Amino acid sequence: MKLNDSAFLLLHADDNLVIAKRQVSPGETIVESNGAPPIATTASIDMGHKIARSSIAVGDPVRKFGQIIGFASHPIAPGEWIHSHNLTAGHLSLDYAFSSDIPAPPEPVEGRVFQGFRRADGRAATRNYVGIISTVNCSASVSKYAVDQIRRDILEQYPNVDGVVALTHKGGCAMQYDGEDHHQLARVLGGFAKHPNIGAYVIVGLGCETGQTGFLVDDQSLVQLKGASQPQTGSPLVLTIQETGGTAKTVNRTVELIKELLPEANKVQREAIPVSEIMLGCECGGSDGYSGITANPALGIASDLLVAHGATSILGETPEIYGGEHLLTRRAITPEVGQKLVDLMHWWEDYTGKFGTQIDNNPSPGNKKGGLTTIYEKSLGAIAKGGSTALQGVFKYAEPVTSRGFVVMDTPGYDPASVTGMVAGGANVVAFTTGRGSCFGCKPVPSIKIATNTPLYERMSDDMDFNAGKIVDGASVEEVGRELFEKVIAVASGEKTKSELQGLGDEEFCPWSIGPTL
Amino acid sequence: MKLNDSAFLLLHADDNLVIAKRQVSPGETIVESNGAPPIATTASIDMGHKIARSSIAVGDPVRKFGQIIGFASHPIAPGEWIHSHNLTAGHLSLDYAFSSDIPAPPEPVEGRVFQGFRRADGRAATRNYVGIISTVNCSASVSKYAVDQIRRDILEQYPNVDGVVALTHKGGCAMQYDGEDHHQLARVLGGFAKHPNIGAYVIVGLGCETGQTGFLVDDQSLVQLKGASQPQTGSPLVLTIQETGGTAKTVNRTVELIKELLPEANKVQREAIPVSEIMLGCECGGSDGYSGITANPALGIASDLLVAHGATSILGETPEIYGGEHLLTRRAITPEVGQKLVDLMHWWEDYTGKFGTQIDNNPSPGNKKGGLTTIYEKSLGAIAKGGSTALQGVFKYAEPVTSRGFVVMDTPGYDPASVTGMVAGGANVVAFTTGRGSCFGCKPVPSIKIATNTPLYERMSDDMDFNAGKIVDGASVEEVGRELFEKVIAVASGEKTKSELQGLGDEEFCPWSIGPTL
Ligand SMILES: [Ca+2]
Ligand SMILES: [Ca+2]
Ligand SMILES: [Ca+2]
Ligand SMILES: [Ca+2]
Ligand SMILES: [Ca+2]
Q: Which residue range or ranges hold the SAF domain (chains A, B) (predicted)?
């Protein structure tokens, strides 16, 4: 029997550890394929956790994926559990080696299409939503009330409209006018207003907020989209509660405006669009020890296939790239692109340092329970989502993504904030891997939830769209990755995700604020 | 005719300016009561804005409320409009004079009651809500779905329950575990769980979030309240989506749990409770030139009356106290209390400095349009809400308020975040003054909205509860303040506010995050 057919998984020949594929009891034996003497486990070890396959002295590197994930802080014997008690992140000295190892472009694949919506200005949509964009928390209730009324009384008359969403949040005021945080929020709100999946929208503000509607419209050059058949000119529709005369009047006026927009917004139908116009946002949330060995590498295969088809795959979550950036700088298409990535890391070190916080305080308690010990281990697992092609660009949070291929966007690791940025940047499908479980949804964009392990897939069957855990059960990463690529195309073409079937996605719009709130 | 019966309002004999009570045309004359030569206005000047009543040289102080609000940056002629173009904040050197001017306690008033709910442990409530407390954004949708179902199908059977509220937010993860931001969020969530207006609650988390349910329950010593007739012992009800098996199952289980809690939660009735058990949270939002001369001083009178009755009035919004703290340190009951206030100011200077932001970038564009030029002017107007009694204590954000009388809580100026902190600290009525307009609501606590001017009161009649603008029309501050005190008692006794009548308050729960989001 091969080692990987047993309860243990060796990820790379250079590794001095194996992974428990299930809960392992003390005294179970790791039998190497090369005929070396069997090693007995010395403790009960949870699924996804690490076990030493050789002696590791204090200060010696601990390797997973063939990469250093940290250093032994106590002597580790063969068969011993490796985790926070005997493994520390230490300080990895990184060699960026900019653009030294740019992968050859994948063999281009042409002619493959999905069924999407073509907007009058040429953009490709995967869903057709109408939005109410709330500039500030003070207009959130009004926006929600209007959406409730439209859903209850009006929407069924427009079968080609997938839904109406109130993009409400907790910010929009008490920030520095024209400051970095204000611009970031404007990019998010503007990015959603301009998102291909939004067929028409109304902006609703209070009136006196720092995040003025006029600033938003100007800064983001917003225009109204009037359905596929109309030119996109003219100012967007803007209401403020203070000018309109309060809650009730503004709800009524918002509903009236949306009513006027709906007939045009409904005049769409799906048509064949090249797969190259898919922009996939890749996210992992509630990671576990399997994230980096099943779902994320499978998503990496799907990303590579999308890139081969001329499409775009976005890797976000800068704090989770942290420690693994030297793997991406080598793949950067130019040294400038690589330097942008390194600059992000410095921004984050500086930013978290202001708060006395360590960027490598990550992984979370849930991650640790799932078997991830160090930020490096988590990062190496996290960047697997981006696949293996050249890094074509690095974008600011919520910045419009203008490169095709594999790109990085600066987002926090926090799922709703991260995905909000990628969608604002243009992602029209989201792929969300999770080991601990998630019920994330993200209107107006479908979010495919990918379980890293079969027990999760079964336990949260109402929420999980895809089981990458079958890799542990024997399927190859390549095979599962191809299947996931097909799932992305199906969902882009209108197949509803589990979160869409449950109506999720009204609460997860979460613009990342870098502060301060005054 | 007296000056204050004309279009102009002189606030204090030492002032070198008057306020326009309405839009004033160029050439209208300011006729002083003392027979001095009339002064003609030199421009069209908006309501609430300032006009010089004497020549002011560059660098000379500009006085309003008898206090320095800044210094002339250009020469100002009599009759000239005073605003950002000729007035700067400069740097006021403050003399704290700790506890040098502690006001005599107001004449105590006894025997006055309101009709409230008495909880089994003795706490006094003004409303009777059931809550779903969401630890993290990842459980927000589940919490909202459960509330929707309870409102639709169940709640009408329990007429003594005022409502069910999902306390959802955008945070709860990607913060430093056990760090300052984590503790602050725990104080907010714990403060709401322990709020007298919450008769029963369920905590709903995802499972893997940094803000673990177990941390919350332990840190905040949470117990379940089982109606008025039951002892408050036993652990609170906690669900996680990951353990419960996903969205649908967790919604169902949450609804089941709330169903079990409702019969006991319904067993309450209003009874006479001393007014001393009212805790008023004072907030101003969307301030204008009238905030500091009508609504805020009237609220100050109401605060003083509450204090005379042994009750508590909370002044928040530290950045809006900034610049006026030397008026409060004199009134501090001990130098230690005064020093706590000064320490807050230093924390804020340090905090905003980290971001390269000035704490005095306040007032907002809306404030400026309304006639407020400098932070000092705004602060002097803002602290008027706290009245004139001794400062009894200074509390952290969302910290339980344990002093009676007039106290300060450290909150940001941002309305939803500020009120969330005061309610978490125990405020059972909120008084919210506004000049530009607001539709703020704050479940489970009623929020009285007080217009600073009559045009606003009339324009947003569906949202405004009280018109302090009648002070401009001739009523005295004292008279209007007494009327507001009576309104507070009526609302505490069950009279519905405008925002309650409209169902507002589901979106405004907004825990203040000091960052960083990782
Ligand atoms: Ca993650
Ligand atoms: Ca994370
Ligand atoms: Ca994440
Ligand atoms: Ca304010
Ligand atoms: Ca405020």
A: 15-88
